[in-house]
Amino acid sequence: MRLFGQYLRLHRKSAVLFLAFVLIYAVVFSLYRLPLEAVLYAGGLCLLAFALLAGLDFWRFRARHMQLADLRKRVFLGVDGMPDPADLIEEDYQAALRALWDDRARMVSRADAAMSDMRDYYTLWAHQIKTPIAALHLLLKEDSEESRELFKIEQYVDMLLSYIRLESDTNDLVLRECDLDAILRAAARKYARFFIHQGLRLEIRTGGRRVLTDEKWFSFCIEQLLSNAVKYTPSGVISMYVENDYLVIADTGIGIAPEDLPRVFERGYTGYNGRTDRKSTGIGLYLTRRVLTMLGHQILIDAHPGGGTRVHISLKRPNYTE
Question: What strands lie across the sheet with 246-251, from one edge to the other?
Fold first, then answer.
């Protein structure tokens, strides 16, 4: 019905012109005192012819509309398949549309090439920088301030590589049952120097839980969350334990402001703590949620200012039962 209404609005001038012609015929027939039946007969024949032509034209109008609607669904593939132009104006419109499509395709091709070059450069740089970082680790004392800062640089490099892998078209996911306790303890060992330096206590309780996931990517997420816990917990306890079907990473740190909680997973969002610390990038939690979503895990955060932070990661993936 809506399509028919659009058709009538498109041809309203023709309808008005037809009615004007019928009126002219009626006036002329009246002036010549012709019988009323002749006027009605002529008007009926004209109306019938008009209705037949309008019906045929509406059928063609509907067919062209359906063809264009189908083209709109796959326009990202190209503009081939447009209906034949009905007149010169439509031909000009289609030529302009093809020119726009060709220009867009060239722009997308250049952007893809530039992004590919940039990704290759960053990947090469990240791999090359690991060699001097490893050499510096050998030169510096493990418990020194310089060594801790160098470790942070190494973590940022790993974050860059993970970001590049996530943005690429392929991934190296290998899902299998993993020992959760081994993953947590490996992550804790990487941050042992920070626990010792800040006097933090670490508690790990998993109850021998196993989880179906990708060990490398899941470990990356745990390290990001543990890094945040260490960064924003000047003193106290950091706990990692299983509660029901969730892994909980809890700390006794400064917490998170209520207005920041809904946005902590946004890319580049640092919140009040990040603006105060001025060292936050707003990338860690963004990458963590992206990776966990890719792995089929859900992540939730519960925090209060001054009351610490609790991160919940679901250990059961959809349609998976132990």
Answer: 201-205, 237-243, 246-251, 309-314, 299-303
Element (H, E) at 167: helix 145-167
pLDDT in tens, 153-195: 888 888 888 888 887 766 678 899 999 999 999 999 999 988 9
Contact 284, 161 (CB under 8 A): no
The 3 state secondary structure assigned to 46-90 is HHHHHHHHHHHHHHHHHHHHHHHHHHHHCHHHCCCCCCCCCCHHH
Q: pTM of the full predicted structure?
A: 0.66
Cα(288)–Cα(42) distance, integer angstroms: 78
- Kindly tell me the sign of the dihedral angle through the C-alpha atoms of 225, 229, 230, 232: positive
pLDDT tens digits for range 283-298: 889 999 999 999 999 9
Condensed to tens digits (0 to 9), the pLDDT of residues 198-250 reads: 999 999 998 889 999 999 999 999 999 999 999 899 889 999 999 989 999 99
Question: What is the rounded distance in angstroms from the CA atom of residue 109 to the CA atom of residue 20?
Answer: 56
Both tokens of residue 166?
């996530």
| Side chain identity at residue 16, one-letter code | V
Extended strands (E) in 61-170? none
Which one is predicted more confidently, 229 or 97? Answer: 229
Burial of 218 (0-12, 13-18, 19+ CB in 10 A): buried
